[in-house]
Write a structure and sequence with these properties.
Layout: E1 4-11, E2 14-21, E3 28-33, H1 39-56, E4 65-71, E5 79-84, H2 91-109, H3 123-128
Parallel strand pairs: 3-4
Antiparallel strand pairs: 1-2, 4-5
């Protein structure tokens, strides 16, 4: 399966999407160890980091996705944050992604191989309206 991602460039005619191989697109993946902080301070630092990650998205540079793991220590479940630019995913697609994340997590938790449903309509087919 050929994977690709993109960036957005502006020329005299307006904005265009430029497809790039996935390995050429930067994805911010961060880890924040907040275990030593008090509960209120953890949430505050999570919010600060989330805002910084959101601001780091840059469609022109191809930075459309960021993810972070917030480690709250052994006694408190951590948090996984995904930030995806609205040019890449909409509200309906988020619901599908969340279902897939929940499915994959449940399978991993049960020591199963992750098996997600097959893709539906390709972007190329959808774009043509077929």
């Amino acid at each position: 399966m050929k994977r690709c991602a993109g960036r957005f460039v502006r020329d005299a005619g307006g904005w265009l999407q430029d497809h790039l191989p996935a390995q050429d697109v930067p994805i911010a993946l961060a880890h924040f160890d907040l275990a030593e902080l008090a509960a209120d301070a953890r949430i505050e630092q999570l919010e600060i980091a989330a805002a910084a990650l959101q601001q780091s998205l840059n469609p022109v540079a191809g930075r459309l996705v960021a993810a972070a793991w917030f480690d709250f220590g052994a006694d408190t479940p951590g948090r996984l944050l995904f930030i995806i630019h609205h040019l890449v995913v909409d509200g309906v697609s988020w619901r599908i992604l969340i279902e897939d994340f929940i499915t994959a997590y449940g399978q991993l938790e049960s020591s199963e191989t992750v098996k997600l449903p097959g893709k539906t309509t390709s972007f190329k087919t959808w774009r043509r309206g077929s």
